[in-house]
């Protein structure tokens, strides 16, 4: 049985898949007029691929997590670098705690990479948002673990995607925050950091009475961001989309969904004409979902679009 998760879209149409039962990761490309190629990566235990980016030299970097290569038999950040033909250039695993997961990767101006996910430093610790910087050769440069204690309670927090600010002043991480004692709802978590990963500010978004989570984010030319995720409803999920300014102040929120079906969003991109292109699933994950929304003037604030 296969379940798929699309990685970052590139000119070659990269798809990253995850085996549910097989301990294997593979990268598949399909050119518009060519057969493409498919190559598997991984070890003899569980390996999961979640994010992919095409590099400036037209190769690829894939990130996820694996329990095949670490010494402590838990999940560690797993990074694969290939050339344009999928030939392995290097493969690295990073283990800074009890468990580490990676969900997204972007290339930096120095041709290195920023990887975002979560880390649980010790067995009993609630996961924290985790940001890892590596060189173009896969060498560790620095990492950040972001505080997840609110009041006296440690929250389960996760980074799902990262976007570079339009002015180059740093990055924004989107994810979720949930009280580890289960007394409270999931919230969308947005953390703004500088180029060294130092936290500048953070905000949470969503309804106080239902679960919300953030899956994807894009930077806007004016310094703000648009991010999207899922909000819980009686029959599953609806899609929720927020626009914020450069300081994280909410400018608008659109919720999209039909009352009789489940809809979820997996990714979005900002097109050259200022529209947001969303991709996900609908009707109990049985249909693909593709929608378009203008980033400046959404149709029907808080209504279907």
Could you characterize the architecture of this molecule?
Strand 16 and strand 17 (199-205) form a beta hairpin. The protein contains no helices and 24 strands. The protein is globular. Strands 13-14-15-16-17 form a five-stranded antiparallel sheet, with no helix packed on it. It has a four-stranded antiparallel sheet with strand order 1-2-3-4, with no helix packed on it. A four-stranded antiparallel sheet has the order 5-6-7-8, with no helix packed on it. It is mostly beta strands and 305 residues long. The model is unreliable at 1-24, 285-290 and 299-305 (pLDDT under 50). The chain starts with a strand and ends in an 11-residue tail after the last strand. It has a domain at 2-209: 6 Propeller (Neuraminidase).
């Amino acid at each position: 049985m296969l379940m798929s998760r699309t990685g970052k879209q590139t000119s070659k149409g990269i798809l990253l898949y995850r085996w549910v039962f097989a301990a294997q990761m593979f990268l598949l490309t399909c050119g518009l007029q060519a057969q493409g190629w498919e190559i598997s990566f991984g070890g003899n235990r569980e390996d999961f691929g979640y994010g992919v980016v095409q590099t400036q030299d037209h190769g690829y970097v894939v990130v996820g997590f694996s329990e095949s290569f670490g010494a402590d038999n838990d999940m560690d950040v797993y990074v694969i670098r290939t050339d344009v033909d999928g030939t392995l250039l290097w493969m690295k695993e990073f283990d800074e705690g009890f468990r580490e997961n990676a969900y997204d990767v972007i290339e930096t101006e120095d041709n290195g990479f920023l990887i975002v996910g979560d880390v649980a430093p010790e067995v009993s610790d609630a996961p924290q948002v985790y940001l890892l910087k590596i060189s173009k050769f896969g060498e560790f440069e620095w990492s950040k673990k972001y505080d997840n204690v609110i009041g006296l309670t440690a929250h389960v927090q996760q980074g799902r995607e990262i976007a570079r600010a339009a002015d180059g002043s740093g990055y924004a991480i989107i994810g979720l925050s949930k009280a580890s004692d289960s007394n409270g709802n999931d919230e969308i978590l947005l953390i703004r950091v500088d180029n060294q990963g130092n936290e500048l500010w953070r905000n949470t978004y969503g309804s106080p009475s239902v679960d919300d989570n953030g899956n994807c984010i894009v930077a806007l030319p004016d310094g703000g961001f648009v991010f999207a995720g899922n909000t819980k409803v009686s029959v599953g999920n609806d899609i929720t989309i927020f626009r914020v300014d450069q300081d994280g102040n909410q400018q608008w929120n659109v919720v999209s969904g039909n009352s009789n079906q489940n809809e979820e969003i997996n990714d979005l991109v900002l097109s050259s004409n200022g529209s947001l292109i969303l991709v996900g699933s609908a009707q109990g994950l049985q249909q693909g979902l593709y929608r378009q929304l203008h980033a400046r003037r959404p149709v029907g604030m808080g209504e279907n679009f």
